[in-house]
Fold each of these.
Amino acid sequence: MSETDASPWAAWGTAPSPRYETLAARFRPVFACIREGAVARERERDLPYEAIGWLKEARFGALRVPEAEGGFGASLPELFGLLAELGQADSNLPQALRNHFGFAEDTVGSPVGERRTHWVERLAAGDLFGGAWSETGPAAVGTFETRIHRSGTRWGLTGRKYYTTGSLFADWIDVVGTGEAGEETSVVVPAKAPGVEIVDDWDGFGQRLTASGTALFEDAPAIGEPLPTADRFPYGPAFFQAVHLATLTGIARAAAGEVVQAVRERNRTYSHAAGARPSTDPQVLQVVGRVHGLAYAAGAINGQAARAVQRAYEARLAGLPEAEAHAINVAAEIELAQAQSVLTGLVLDVGTLLFDALGASATSRHDALDRHWRNARTIASHNPRIFKERVVGDYAVNATEPPFQWKIGQIREN
């Protein structure tokens, strides 16, 4: 039986919940279609508009919306399990939807009110949200050149963003900028509105189909009132990192599946090999087993991290006393930092070791096996793990709390 015939969880341990298989069954046919074109899209740098359209039609973006409000009511372990499956099909897609699920997470846990009702309805309908937070250029760390300002009877947005992952595929864009009083705040802008331009200029060597390039705003119309970022979900950094871990897990599983298939089908061997065919060579089989074990470990870490973020979500929903909720958020941030540090290394090893089981023909661009390492290395460059490891060490030794927002920019001397 091939891996494509087996249950997706056959080699990866216990599914995230008893109902997970039922929930996942709705989306697996979509994942299968996405997987079929993944290598060709990679070779040709063909942006996945069609694949995003399939996910949108299936209302994949409504996973976290409660069932009573028209969504699927997925828990966070279920969400991150499904994102890992999507990442196994094509790792560009969970990253392209990372900002969507961040906006959805903040929205579903928000206090009941007009703003929550409005956006939950859009999420339930299948609308997709991109994000525009980071900036390049001269902005100092912790500040934004992008301005959110009054424009007649509405709010407007003017500025330039980069790393606007997924915005090219989105209906709405969640943008962070500087308000009129100098405060850090956020607004939602229609992606196709006048004054909005999304440029496909992402030139990274990995995750090349995520549309992580530039967004330009020129008095773009904002919907509703600005929301201060201080009022948004406090476990946001842990959540966004957990999406990366799920994507990395998917990469490891995809690489494991492809090396299995390649070894099974390979007829050529070496004069000094230990078997007549690679599929019977104990040394080759050891490499395959090692790759599978690393992918399994990545999934186990991903599941543990997801449970930490779920606890933080439940603390927000329960309205726990501030000190208790803060302690849970600190724990989630430390857990995710530790998970990132280890899981990243496992997946990068997968992307390298798989070639030890194959011949030089495996380096053919046609097969695009190099994409696994390139994509993993690109994701791992976000929120660099060297800083996360230091933060964990400082917490362990000195009880120093981790930062709850990771920002980039220039350090300006007085």
Amino acid sequence: MDHSEPIIVALDCDNRPTAAGIVERLGDECRSYKVGLELLTAAGPDFVGELVARGKRVFLDLKLFEIPTSVAAAVRAAGALGVSMVTVHGMGGAGIMRAAVEAARDFPRLRVLALTVVTSMTDADLADVGVGRPARDQTLRLARLAGAAGCHGVIASPRDITELRHELGGGALIVAPGVALPGQSPGEHAHPSTPGAALAAGASHIVVGRAVTRAADPAAAFRLVRADLAS
């Protein structure tokens, strides 16, 4: 992914025409898009291939959590599509993360990122599933595990970026969802941030969703996000 352009727009859409319309309206303003399970299921992998063919970088947010063989096969399929990033779930353990990293070696431009703790989860949510550690501690624990497994970076809440940057060093990718412009809703993310604050804390990339995709003028909204980064 291009560090000079840290903004990734989340195409969290339930149909292909809506997603394609957003891409069309953003035009050359946006270089990078996130495609998650919702859009992948609705539009299929061909849509991802079309984005890549248009010169767009695609962050394929699969949150893979399966046996290592299946994870490796999914990563190879993502690499064949030409995506730039793919996610595995850190809670799956070192085995699946190593399998993902090894599978990505055949695709030099593909980066494997580990999801630490889902950004909508609170300490109470973790306790419900038997994790007796605060979300911040669990994030750092999984980030260390991901680094040891060879992952290129992590997905994490904006509030944890500073500690993660210190822990992982300057070369790691840290992608922060839960980012919105000042005064706008961050959706279901428990610990949101503004674009500029996330970047200043040490994020390499930020993921922006409805602040851009639901704006009356997505291109103008994208420029506001870029201006917030610059400030």
Amino acid sequence: MHKGRGLEKTGVLMAALILVSTFLLPFIVVKPNRILEGQGQMLIDALPSVSSIALAAALVIVGLCLLLRLPASARLAIVTAALLAVILALGSAANAGLPPGNSYARVSPGSGFWLLLFALSLAFIDVIAKLKLSPTVRLMLLLIAIVAVGGIFASGILADISVMKEYANRADAFWAEMSRHAMLALGSMLVAFLIGLPLGVVCHRVSWLRAAALNMLNILQTIPSIALFGLLILPLGWMAAHIPGAAAIGISGIGTAPAFVALVLYSLLPVVANTVAGLENVPREANDAARGAGMTDLQRLFSIEFPLTFPSLLAAIRIVLIQNIGMATIAALIGGGGMGVFVFQGLGQSAMDLVLLGALPTVAMSFVAAIVLDALVDFSKAPGSEVRPA
């Protein structure tokens, strides 16, 4: 079979998902209010007839293109255009689906939209992987995507979607909880590195301590997050009540403090393990050359070992940050704030749009962090980035 002919095996599933979501599942759901269940509308019914037929035909063509072995650049352009068209169509469908004069009615994305978004995103990621783009290009594409998404939201095209109405009613609280969520994720990661980095160095130097420390941190990882939050309430509450000044700096049995401490504890294992693994992979010749040059142990650590361990430390940052962004959502259960506030409020009120208001930004933060840190890891491994001792 010649190159460029035949079917693209990975495109079969994506094309099938696109066709199912376009013709068999509701594109939007029109609800009488934010809580009650609504009536689903297919894509062909959610938009004016000409627009719906044109979009459905375009999606069929996109599905067929995914089946063919087209150049990766062409596939990227097709999938990107399809993603933008589907998002813009959602805004138009929401505007058309709202009953005139009814301020209580809501229009939510239906299962067809979510499956369509998933299939096109999967195709987009598949194309990006096949292109094998450099870290710089990946970061540029991420920046372009952020600007494009920001422009879509700023334009008001999606203002009639139910989740955007939830945002409009809670904009101040949204950004306050977003900043608290970021503080929990980033702050706990920083503290974990301040503790875990020297602990990893000590574990690398002292073999018997390494096994004990890693086993203990492994045990911490097995404790469910809710249970760990609960275990921390009593000691932190005692500290707040009996240690002068503890309450003044924010230590308490419930709230941000136990959530922050739990995230730090969960973050220690990746930091310590990656530090030990990175130091063990430092070539013996590099250390021997440094000793021959008269370097002390501390000089070797900072001038030779840490620079050579940098890719491993970046990988630890990636693991910890993505883990903490997700786990910080649970902090809302003990008053720690964050985007979990909207998730659990929505679950309590049976308002799924409120759940999405907390969940979607959390997913977006994790996605952006993964792309940025993956690029940084690749930068650190690029030729010429290694440190070579004299």
Amino acid sequence: MSRQAAVSTTSDVAAKPSKLFVLDTNVLMHDPTSVYRFEEHDVFLPIMTLEELDNHKKGMSEIARNARQVTRTLDEIVSSMDDAIEQGIKLHEASRRLASGRLFLQTEAIASELPAGLPTAKADNQILAVVIHLQRQHPERSVILVSKDINMRIKARTLGLQAQDYFNDKVLEDTDILYTGMRELSAEFWDEHGQGMESWQQDGHTLYRFKGPLCTQFLANQFLIQEGESPLHAIVRNASGTSAEIQTLTDYTHARNSVWGITARNREQNFALNLLMNPEIDFVTLLGQAGTGKTLLTLAAGLTQVLETRRYKEIIMTRVTVPVGEDIGFLPGTEEEKMGPWMGALEDNLEVLNKSDEETGDWGRAATHDLIRNRIKIKSLNFMRGRTFLNKFLIIDEAQNLTPKQMKTLITRAGPATKVVCLGNIAQIDTPYLTEGSSGLAYVVDRFKGWAHAGHITLQRGERSRLADYAAEVL
């Protein structure tokens, strides 16, 4: 349902005629099931939208796959038609009761009524002409153009038409409320929850079990912080009803607990290493701006568990290949060689990890580098469908550029004993039509919070250099 429809009262819905949403092609290709997402309202597809879908259906890209899926969905809807097509096709049965409106297809030629400055041959302008026609034909109804194209929406508004973005893909309206993985406890917390508390030791950690009103808000694997004279850093192991069980953390800021020679430099990095080194946690998401140590900590944890404890067989690293500047064209070589230029972050971090052992000398470091590179495989997203990763440490870098659907495709590749780590910064999205609220990374953070085998932390402080920290702050 649209945001406007969501806030209307029941009496308003009964009194007003349903809205008519005209869908731009990019909405259908962004979400192939979008025709079912408008609940009681009607959906209209201009003939030019179908033409553009036809132009994009060839190939193996995500857009081409989505275009083909939309075409199949529309075929299924049209096949279930009972009434004349001009009356609209009921979506109730085809959508499995998700939508109760009708789908209208353009069945007649519509004369262009656009201002002289807009060329009628352009597909976007023909869709705008359809919206103008529908607005005149149905003055009693709200006719709204839905498009992911900002320029298209601006053009529509300058012509006096209603236009809006497609909101259904948004996980959050405001990324400030995105789950951070941490919760600060007040000074009065133990006064309210300390009565009848149990505590015991297990595997070098102290565990506490207590009851209280705040326990209902705790999530599994959420970090609890209480600063002061006797600071507490703990993780929620179990929370059910008004009781909770929490456990103290391994202190990775101390050199004796270093991971591949790396120690945590701040509170959030310590939390991240507790998630990355925990065999019970299968899925980890790390958010943070450039220089917070996401990739370095993940690689250090991965190498320790692959080469030292042998918990996993190898590290697999992948990322979306979206260029920041101009694309440099086709790259020669094997899959791994083609991905090489995209994996500069991997090489930079391996250099840091390789320097952590100063006593080995140049020969020793060269041998270690070869050993490490032999256990890290770089894979392209293009070849992930149908694969199953067994006993692997899978790192998805720059995950903010993935759509929720791509993220699902990747995470469902995980077989038994595989750990998946997603890294990203939702303030640096390079994929067209994706926003902070609709990114696949924000989607999985929101959906996995509270699952007993998943953990998330938002890294706050940059640890790259004083220059990088100052640039991130002032630029």
